[in-house]
Amino acid sequence: MMLGFEELVFIAIIALIILSPEKLVEFARELGKIYAEYKKAKRLVELEVLYGVSSEELKEEMEKRYRELKIELESFKDGRSPPQ
User: Fold this and answer.
1) Full pLDDT tens readout for the chain, 84 residues
2) Residue 41 phi/psi, 5° resolution?
């Protein structure tokens, strides 16, 4: 269900009436954080369902790759060739 422009304007006006402008900013910020967490959780579930990869396995693999890239970057900064 998609909301049209008129519905969004109506919701914004009601929110502004109910909440003060300062509280509305705080509310929007918290709503953004909640939405970001929702998207992250949704993506993890999709990966687990589609590819059979658990979120823990994915996290471990990403941390391993991060460490490898960090070592390569440090060796590049020092002028050494990266480890093979």
Assistant:
1) 677 888 888 888 888 888 888 888 888 888 888 888 889 888 888 877 887 767 777 778 878 888 888 887 777 666 655 455
2) -65, -40
Q: Give me 17's structure tokens.
A: 């009436």
Query: How open is the CA angle 79-82-84, to the nearest 5 degrees?
Result: 155
Token pair for 10: 């109506």
Could you tell me if 39 and 31 are in contact, meaning their C-beta atoms sit under 8 angstroms apart?
Answer: no
What stretches of 1-84 show up as alpha helix (H) in DSSP? Answer: 5-18, 21-51, 55-77
**Alpha carbons 48 and 31: distance in angstroms, whole number:** 26
Q: Which of 33, 23, 35, 1 is nearest to 15 (CA)?
A: 23
Considering all CA atoms of the chain, what is the largest pairwise distance in Å, rounded to the nearest integer?
62
The verdict on pTM exceeding 0.85 is no
